[in-house]
Amino acid sequence: MKNLLLLISMLVFFFQCSSGQFRYPPRCEAERYYRTKCNSCHRRPDPMDKTAEQWSVVLWEHQKRLSLDDDNLRNMIAFMQRGGVCSDTSYAESK
Ligand code: HEC
């Protein structure tokens, strides 16, 4: 009985760790968009794969494919240029 409980709690623990792909909820709008949209047409790109200049070029060329207006696209570009880091954490705090 004790072993069964131990087994169940280990399974629960295992699934909790493996089900969520991310260790924390998105902390800004760009991060949420990156997680939910940037993998809908291809695998999610690594922010570290391109230079700041390349992100700007690629994503402005990408705009027609993205449901982002100019301001949000600028935000998205800045997010990728920072290596996938939010500039502030107000999003997580306000939700
Ligand atoms: C509506 C579909 C769609 C969405 C959404 C999308 N992409 Fe793409 N992406 C494409 C297609 C199609 C290509 C391949 C054609 C090309 O290279 O231009 C591509 C190519 C790329 C490339 C490779 C281009 C290169 O020159 O190396 C990068 C990087 C990229 N996408 C980043 C992103 C990011 C970041 C997001 C989220 C902000 C995103 N994509 C969302 C359709 C999409």
Structure in words:
This is Cytochrome c. With 95 residues, this protein is mostly helical. It has one domain (24-94). Helix content is 57%, strand content 0%. The chain has helices spanning 2-19, 29-36, 52-62, 70-81, 90-94. Helix 2 (29-36) packs across helix 4 and helix 3 (52-62) packs antiparallel against helix 4. The mean pLDDT is 86. Heme C (HEC) binds next to helix 3 and helix 4.
Outline? elongated
What's the total helix number?
Answer: 5
Q: Number of folding domains?
A: 1
The gyration radius over C-alpha positions equals: 18 Å
Q: How does the SSE layout of this entry go?
A:
Elements: H1 2-19, H2 29-36, H3 52-62, H4 70-81, H5 90-94
Bound molecules: heme C (HEC).
Heme C binds at residues 37-38, 40-42, 45, 58, 62, 65-66, 76, 80.
Organism: Caldithrix abyssi
Protein name: Cytochrome c
Summarize this entry quickly.
The chain is mostly helical and 95 residues long.
Give structural attributes:
Cytochrome c, elongated, 57% helix, 95 residues, mainly alpha, binds heme C, 0% strand
